[in-house]
Amino acid sequence: MPITEVVSNAEALTLSIVADYPVPLARLWDAYADPRKLERFWGPREWPATFTRHDMAVGGYSHYHMTGPDGTISRGWFRFLTITPHQLIEVEDGFADEHGQPNTDLPGMRMTFMFEATETGSRFRSVTYFNSVEEMEKLVEMGMMEGMRSAMSQIDDVLTDLATFAATLATHAQLLNDTQVRVSRVVRGTPAQLWRAHHEPALMQRWLTGPDGWTMPVCQVAKSVGERYRYEWASNDGAQRFGFEGELLESMAPHRAVTSEQMIGTDGPATRNEMTLTPVEGGTLLSILITYPSKELRDMILGTGMTTGMEASYARLEQELLAA
Fold first, then answer.
1. R_g (Cα) of the chain, nearest Å
2. Number of separate helices (H) and strands (E) present in the chain
3. How far is 176 from 178, CA to CA, in rounded Å?
4. What is the DSSP secondary-structure string of 118-169?
């Protein structure tokens, strides 16, 4: 078990934890930066976590829920206040209601996560700051101490699973629930480079073409919130053509962009696509959380080989970035 120290200070209203790991500092940091890894240890063993948002940038948010043995759902959120790469993460943390909004009936807190290299690997220090003795006691009564110990006892398996840290892994789609899918891939490049690659039409038309045999003749980019975009693809033989259009709903360069998306020529409801770009070892974690209007549409789209086409495009994007 990696925890080497737990100190509760009622006068200072703090709870401090120290844990040591025999792995490089960058790998420990990436475990907190990558939601695919974080959700494997953020919740206690009996209450595994699922992250439906994780914008690890100052001002960004994370939304998650933990599912108990009987199916009970407990929701939470945190907002990033400070980030110093490979050194410090500071967040405001709280509970959420069934709509994902902050639940002010339950206590909130501030947490700092500190990272440092050691002779044997890396060290993690966390300090939780409570607002009052009463709130501190309430959270302890709710099982916070036991939950944190159980959660952190799982991180060893995550850190030693070298395959999940490989920057060469192909595009992967993870089903989060009946209507949401998270598509992820580490792309060798910086967040700024990937942001540019998603906002410059001439560059997009070189890489965002899916499998061989297709081109992107129409690439109208939305650069400001409220603007609409339109993308169209055509097969080289001219026999097939399709496209998508939608609206830019949120934008926080170079970390997060949210769009609606609908196939051109259809009347069905749109999907919501949330793209986040997070620096990790080996490049940038490109993650797209797609919310579909129904499970049936989700399964139909995934059944078209969507991730195969996305992987072809991202591989082409890497070649563009490496050649630049």
1. 21
2. 9, 16
3. 7
4. ETTEEEEEEEEEES-HHHHHHHHHTTHHHHHHHHHTTHHHHHH-GGGG-TTP
| C-alpha span between 234 and 215 (Å, rounded) | 5
pTM over 0.85? The answer is yes
Which superfamily does 172-323 belong to? Answer: START domain (3.30.530.20)
User: Residue 79: phi, psi to the nearest 5?
Assistant: -120, 130
What architecture (CATH level 2) is domain 3-165?
A: 2-Layer Sandwich (3.30)
Q: Which of 20, 44, 42 is nearest to 33 (CA)?
A: 42
Block residue for tokens 């595009």: 171
In angstroms, the CA 272 to CA 248 distance is 10
**33, 49, 29: which is closest to 124 by C-alpha?**
29
Q: How far is CA 135 from CA 80, 101, 111, 259, 288, in A?
A: 21, 20, 15, 39, 36
Condensed to tens digits (0 to 9), the pLDDT of residues 55-111 reads: 999 999 999 999 999 999 999 999 999 999 999 999 999 999 988 899 988 889 999
Split at pLDDT 50, 70, 90, the class of 224 is: very high
Token pair recorded at residue 312: 């072809």
Query: What does residue 196 show for φ and ψ, rounded to 5 degrees?
Result: -60, -40
- Please tell me the predicted confidence (pLDDT) of residue 324: 72
Packing angle between helix 133-141 and helix 144-152, nearest 10 degrees?
60
Which structure tokens are listed for 142?
A: 């709710």
| Tally of CA atoms within 13 A in the half-sphere of 74 that contains its CB | 17
> Is the bond preceding 254 in cis, omega lying within 30 degrees of 0?
yes
Domain ranges within the chain, ordered by starting residue:
3-165, 172-323
CB 147 within 8 A of CB 282: no
Torsion of CA 30, 165, 275, 223, to 10 degrees: 80
